[in-house]
């Protein structure tokens, strides 16, 4: 049986469904993620052909760098997606999934750029920049 996971933005105008196993949650502490979300990102990912999105007309894409773009609901502002321009998968914010998601933390990236107002105390692997097989745009 194929795993199905559903989620949405806060207002519900953007909904998505993923099929198949999701990667563990990677916490990104880079300055771009912190500035966009107000804290750090917590995201999983899924192959492009394993996600369906309804309400795509409500997604605004921000070109965050030469390598990637960030998708959010243009109605409620919910941060939903991070998409590398050259890879065949999309990162989906863990908090956008309906419960129970079954997701578990996997690692922290860009810890060298983390905010000075919190500590990382969960014993997951930590990477100064990208690491653990996670490919991201350098900020």
Summarize this entry quickly.
By secondary structure, the chain is mostly beta strands. Helices cover 5% and strands 37% of the residues.
What does the model show?
The chain contains one helix and ten strands; from the N terminus they run βββαβββββββ. The radius of gyration is 14 Å and the shape is globular. A hairpin with a 5-residue loop joins strand 7 and strand 8 (79-84). The protein is mainly β. The mean pLDDT is 93.
The strands making up the biggest β-sheet line up spatially as 6-7-8-9-4-3-10
What value does the Rg take, in angstroms? 14 Å
The helix/strand order is EEEHEEEEEEE
Choose one word for the global shape: globular
End-to-end Cα distance: 39 Å
Tally of individual helices: 1
Quaternary status: single chain
State the major sheet: 7 strands, mixed
Helix fraction by DSSP (H/I, runs of at least 4): under 10%
Low-confidence stretches: none
Mean pLDDT, to the nearest integer, reads 93
Strand content: 35-45%
């Amino acid at each position: 049986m194929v795993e199905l996971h559903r989620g949405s933005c806060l207002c519900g105008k953007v909904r998505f469904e993923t099929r198949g196993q999701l990667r563990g949650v990677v916490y990104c502490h880079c300055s771009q993620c912190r500035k966009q979300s107000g804290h750090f990102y917590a995201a999983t990912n899924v192959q492009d052909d394993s996600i369906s999105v309804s309400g795509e007309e409500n997604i605004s894409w921000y070109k965050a760098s030469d390598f990637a773009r960030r998708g959010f609901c243009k109605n409620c502002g919910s941060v939903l997606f991070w998409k590398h321009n050259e890879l065949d998968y999309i990162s989906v914010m863990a908090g956008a999934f309906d419960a129970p998601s079954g997701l578990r933390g996997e690692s922290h990236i860009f810890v060298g750029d983390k905010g000075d107002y919190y500590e990382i105390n969960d014993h997951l692997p930590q990477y100064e920049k990208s690491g653990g097989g996670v490919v991201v745009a350098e900020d």
